[in-house]
Amino acid sequence: MALPETGTRSARDHALAVLRVRGVALGAALLPAAAAVVLLAGGITGRLGDGWDAVRWAAVAVAVPVLAAAAGVAAVIARARPAVSPTVQVEESAAPDLYRLIRDLADRLDVPPPSAIALTPDCDSWLEDRAHGARRGLPRLPGLLRPGGARRGDAPVLVIGSPFLWWMRVAELRALLAPVVAGTGPSAHPDIAAARRFVRGLDAAAAVAAAAGGPLPRRLAYDFVGWVARLLLRVGASHAAEMERMVAAAAAARAQRVDYGLRVVAQEQVGLAYAGWDRLLTRVALPAWRTGRWPERLDAGVVAALTELSRRDRLAEGFATRLGERPACDLLEEPGAVDRAVSLLAARLFHDGPAEPGPDWAPVDWPQYPDEVVDRIWRTEAARLFAVLRATENPTLAELIDRLVGEAAAAGGGTEELAARIGAVVAREAAAREGAVRAGTASGDAGEVVPLPSGGFPLQPPRSGRDLLAEHITAAVCCAAVDTAGAAPGLDWLDGPALLVDGERRADLARPVLALAEEADPQPLRDWLAAVGVRHDKPIRLV
């Protein structure tokens, strides 16, 4: 096919334009030194007389600081570590079938195979170059699974979204990864690789300069480095963007040779997997993380969530029949170990959890989720609500309703003050937990842990005080239902913690609770309690 080669040539043209920016910068830095050398040589040979002395020494006075500044900027760029996505690297011994599939795919596409395979807890896949010189000799962890890292080869690392491995079938995964793997062809071109290294180095140097602290001279020096790096990035930005666009176009054109029809089906599965993964993280995993528990089989959970979605949604009919085909996770030797490592990384990424399990950060399997997570959430939130309301030693649901209505009446009919107090308590407890996590990370061996932004990448915006109040009232009601009406905590794969009455989920509690939380109207909730058979005069068991 001619199109991929044409795209590669166009990408090479833009890569050369990026490299010309580097050449111009280098020439500008060396020009004063070259002029000084010529003037000094002319003086030594006698070709330039004494009248050139002032010009000669002026040139030297300019060349020395310019050369020193250029050397400093070059040193920072060379030593800066480009950003690397937090991933779990899968060694070939842990997934020989997966590596074989990728190599066969690369052979069919006539491109070099990736140097390694890594997994990310996200619904995306890409190639990532980790061959930058500053990353040589990174610490490696023993065993089959290693976070981050890369081999010493120049080929990029193939990063695969872990939900794809569990939800997609083997043929679908191969079709989905074909355009990604095809990108190793242009990546192997020396000019494109050099241009990418240059851009990544500049970006890393700008980040280092922005984070630099210390004495004023040091900050000024790094400010200059950052200014130079950002200037070069701006000059070469358009060519770098066009280079990447051409590389992607060439890879897509080359991938049309492989499973093109099946790729359309695979793309449909990408959207479905993303919806199920997002729902699982926000509704199921996040509540567990907030209690100090992390589900250790998130990828298996996304299959359960999508199967439940196919049962509920007519638009998803037929997807459940795919489960009879071989899933892509069968390409792993130990899917459970991989799922556990990816699940722990997901907790770090999206909740800023500790990098290793501990007494206050324990794994939980799905069968234990209702008792260890849901019931614990309800008891903890109910205890917090009763503490804010200054309830008696053996509080009841009737006392909760009376105190809440009384406080609302005293405040002029609203519950804003109580909601604000609940929000303040939750914020203090969250800050205390974060401080404990930071202290544990600082005291431990963090040399092999990929640093993440403070707070991680939150899945949801902060909850308002009114939302927290409604959530705490719901928790107290659920505790009373479990203690007095034979209800049980449960797990809904799409909606998270659920109250089960006679084995069926009760989803009609939200409206009565909101009436009490927002309007201080207890009657809808009292009617609901009577319908379910909850004794609001009995004490509630707290944590």
Question: Can you put this structure into words, describing what you see?
Answer:
The chain is α+β, with helices and mostly antiparallel strands and 543 residues long. The chain has 17 helices and 10 strands. The chain starts with a helix and ends in an 11-residue tail after the last helix. The strands form 3 sheets. A 5-stranded mixed sheet has the order 3-5-2-1-4. It has helices at residues 2-45, 53-79, 96-109, 162-167, 170-182, 184-187, 190-211, 216-255, 260-290, 298-312, 335-351, 369-388, 397-410, 416-443, 465-484, 510-519, 523-532; strands spanning 88-90, 116-120, 126-128, 145-147, 157-161, 293-295, 362-364, 488-492, 496-501, 504-505. Helix 1 crosses helix 7, helix 14 packs across helix 15 (465-484) and helix 16 (510-519) packs antiparallel against helix 17. Strand 8 (488-492) and strand 9 form a beta hairpin. The model is unreliable at 133-153 and 444-449 (pLDDT under 50).
Sum up the overall morphology in one term. Answer: flat
Q: Please provide the count of β strands.
A: 10
Radius of gyration: 30 Å
Low-confidence stretches: 133-153, 444-449
Concise summary:
With 543 residues, the chain is α+β, with helices and mostly antiparallel strands. The protein is built from 17 helices and ten strands. This is Integral membrane protein.
